[in-house]
Design a protein that fits this description.
By secondary structure, the chain is an alpha/beta fold. Helices cover 52% and strands 10% of the residues. It has a five-stranded parallel sheet.
């Protein structure tokens, strides 16, 4: 085996290890979060504010940005629109008066088409409206991504592209208008040159940095 082949095999092996470890951590976190939500719901106050989504919600310290508000974080890293539909009972159980929904990037990461993503989001909105009388639903756009923040960015961003994100947001905005749901264009708050997320707003091209969450919180303050 040549030196080049050894290097390639080593790099490939390392990437596979990182990928397996990454999936294992997300799977463990998901199960733990679901179990934690069951316990937290027994103590939750009805009529609160809920954030419902994936890792972009899961990792968001919204309670620190809005300490005077009763907010429950119901984000789970790795979740897709289908995952939210499956665990929507957890949200219905605590009967919040306001729900912020931000979901879809992991669907894109798995190759799901924007039209299907928004169709699933419509189901989420419809179930929430039918199950929680008087609930206010606020839809947050998908965030831009970058394949250029760090060397791992292309792997982390995966199949996501800003073109697909923009199309999803266009369809989502249209859906919100049809269903009389507030739509927040957070994309325009985070985006920079070449339609990519600004470097200071992201950790590795997908997830949000502390600075980025500061930008997000400033915009959300208008709706909280």
């Amino acid at each position: 085996m040549s030196t080049l082949e050894i290097i390639l095999v080593t790099v490939l092996g390392a990437l596979i290890f990182v990928g397996v470890f990454y999936l294992l951590v997300f799977h463990t976190n998901k199960n733990n979060r679901l179990e934690t939500f069951k316990v937290l719901n027994t103590h939750a106050k009805k009529g609160a504010i809920v954030f419902f989504g994936d890792s972009l919600t899961d990792f968001y310290p919204m309670q620190d940005f809005f300490p005077s508000k009763c907010i429950y974080n119901r984000g789970i890293a790795g979740d897709t629109t289908i995952d939210l539909i499956k665990r929507i009972y957890n949200i219905i159980e605590i009967q919040p008066h306001k729900i912020f929904v931000q979901i879809g990037t992991n669907d894109l990461g798995k190759g799901v088409k924007p039209q299907k993503i928004v169709s699933n989001i419509k189901k989420i909105f419809s179930i929430l409206k039918a199950s929680i009388p008087g609930v206010e639903i606020i839809s947050i756009s998908l965030y831009p991504i970058s394949h250029h923040k760090i060397w791992l960015s292309p792997i982390i961003a995966g199949l996501r592209t800003n073109k697909k994100i923009n199309l999803t947001n266009e369809l989502l905005k249209k859906l919100c208008k049809e269903m009389d749901i507030t739509y927040i264009n957070m994309h325009e708050e985070l985006v920079g040159a070449n339609d990519r997320i600004k470097k200071e707003n992201t950790l590795e091209g997908l997830h949000i940095s502390g600075i980025g969450y500061g930008v997000i919180s400033k915009k959300l303050a208008e709706y909280i």
